[in-house]
Amino acid sequence: MTVFDAHFAAALQKRETAGTRRSLRPVTRETGAILRDGQRLIDVSSNDYLGLADHPLLRERAADWALRYGTGARASRLVCGTLDLHHAVEEKLARFKHCDAALLFASGWQANASVVPALCALSVAQTGHPMIVFSDRLNHASLHHGCAAAGVRQVRFRHNDLAHLETLLKREAATPGLRMIVTESVFSMDGDRADIPALRALADRYDAFLYVDEAHATGVLGPHGQGLSGGLADLTMGTCSKALGGMGAYIAGSRLLCDYLINHASGFIYSTALPPAVLGAIDAALDVIPGMDTERTTLLGQAETLRPLLNNAGFDTAESTTQIVPVLIGEAQRALDVATALESEGLLAVAIRPPTVPAGTARLRIALHAGLQDADIKRLAEAIIRLAGNEQ
Ligand code: PMP
């Protein structure tokens, strides 16, 4: 017993009543397959968009680097955890992103949650005033967390509404302090895209720094999977945990930016460096991703097949134009019920509920993979229509 137990229980009960209590349910994996409770499932929920987590080259290099260097980096980067491998992978990432430099972080969450405050601190140090952060309303929790950690007031613009953003930029034009626009390039829960060239133009017009989270675009969109921010963002953050099939994240930008972060980003400074196996997987992913145009075309083609099947049956898939296709259900418990029914038919299409998404917009978040067959897409659409369609 602890003195918090009654409070923990009350907080969980509140979630239970709202239908938003979460719990962990393990799966197991065999190459190319996912199983739960002994049942083989078609996975349309994980973010391994290109199937690289199963790729032999990634497995081999991860194993090889672990055998050669050991299982851990043993220290944080600034102490003695920076291996030659970190430098080699960072150089490769910088070439992949066509940037001067890149810096690895332990996760995407950690990168956003510590890089945003590091940048905000720059405004206070240099101007004596807080950073003015213009954020898309649907930005990932880690970006909001970064702003909260920095203690800055976010100026939130309506999702992908650049006219609204410009109104806010104008409104704040005389406010002292540096300014920064923060967006995702592909939104994780809606699968739509930000207009990066237009954001660049606004950033230039209002002297703002442009921060783009490419977690879901990296490996999937843009020339050779480089993402959508190519040469337009001042800072790109990307994860190695989704299409790259591994773990960790990077910041790409100028050498000056990376040097600043090495000195000021607490999540970089005070955390143990990524281990050799993870670096090996990232390194191999960067070797294979540029050559995967066929898989990228297949993946986006699957989404183009799925969306009209659902839309014609009356389902709302928001503004998705990518491999992420939300199927809006509305009420949290109903989304859960549909996901459970789909799973009993062998389809792993997880329900995403508030607070991850706004209230009333619980959904199935369909994340497609290049390895799915046309028949899988048709089976998925048919099952969703049959199991969720009667109350549309
Ligand atoms: N940004 C976005 C847009 C994401 O969707 C995620 C993952 N959910 C992250 C950052 C965090 O990345 P990671 O899982 O590598 O911590």
TrEMBL record:
Indicate yes or no for the key word Iron. no
Could you tell me which Pfam families the record lists for this protein?
Answer: Aminotran_1_2
Highest taxon, organism lineage: Bacteria
Keywords from the UniProt entry: Pyridoxal phosphate, Transferase
**Could you tell me which InterPro entries the record lists for this protein?**
Aminotransferase_I/II_large, AON_synthase_class-II, PyrdxlP-dep_Trfase, PyrdxlP-dep_Trfase_major, PyrdxlP-dep_Trfase_small
Cited SUPFAM superfamilies: PLP-dependent transferases
Which co-factors does it depend on? Answer: pyridoxal 5'-phosphate
Q: Would the keyword Transferase be found if you checked this record's keyword annotation?
A: yes
Which residues does the UniProt record annotate as the domain Aminotransferase class I/classII large? Answer: 41-384
Report the protein name in the record: 8-amino-7-ketopelargonate synthase
Q: Which organism is it from?
A: Gluconobacter japonicus
